[in-house]
């Protein structure tokens, strides 16, 4: 089980991302601490947690969506990315494996989903 989930969405408005989040979870609260950051408090029914949506997190075109919980409906980042792509219909990227400082995994190996392909690639 991953301690959290994070995906990166290409050129997708925050309002659309929040609409997707609302289709998966109960949104309890939403606020905007800065012009590029939106915080959402969401619930799975028994568990409340924070979701941070940060625009321009990876260059000017990618928005980070970070679920600060180990109790999401997804087994890993890739499963979340696949569901996000289905709803958002824009490119979604995520780390190809669960990140851990102590492993030998390549931190530049990512998973990309778009209209043309789904699979691993090096994002550096």
Short description:
With 124 residues, this protein is of the alpha+beta class. The chain has helices at residues 14-24, 77-88; strands spanning 5-10, 26-34, 37-43, 48-58, 62-68, 92-95, 109-113, 118-122.
Report what the structure shows:
The structure is a single chain. The protein has a single domain (5-122), classed as TATA-Binding Protein (2-Layer Sandwich), CATH 3.30.310. The chain is globular and about 35 Å long. It has two helices and eight strands, in the order βαββββαβββ. The longest helix has 12 residues, at 77-88. With 124 residues, the protein is an alpha+beta fold. Strands 2-3-4-5-1-6-7-8 form an eight-stranded antiparallel β-sheet, with helices on one face. Helices cover 19% and strands 44% of the residues. It starts with a strand and ends with a strand.
């Amino acid at each position: 089980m991953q301690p959290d989930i994070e995906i990166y969405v290409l050129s997708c408005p925050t309002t659309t991302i929040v609409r997707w989040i609302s289709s998966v979870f109960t949104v309890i609260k939403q606020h905007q601490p800065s012009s590029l950051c939106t915080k959402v408090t969401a619930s799975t029914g028994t568990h409340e947690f924070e979701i941070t949506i940060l625009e321009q997190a990876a260059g000017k075109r990618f928005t980070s969506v970070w679920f600060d919980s180990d109790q999401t409906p997804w087994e890993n980042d890739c499963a979340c990315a696949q569901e996000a792509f289905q709803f958002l219909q824009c490119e979604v990227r995520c780390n190809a494996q669960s990140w851990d400082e102590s492993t030998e995994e390549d931190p530049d190996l990512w998973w990309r989903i778009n209209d043309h392909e789904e699979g691993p690639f090096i994002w550096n």
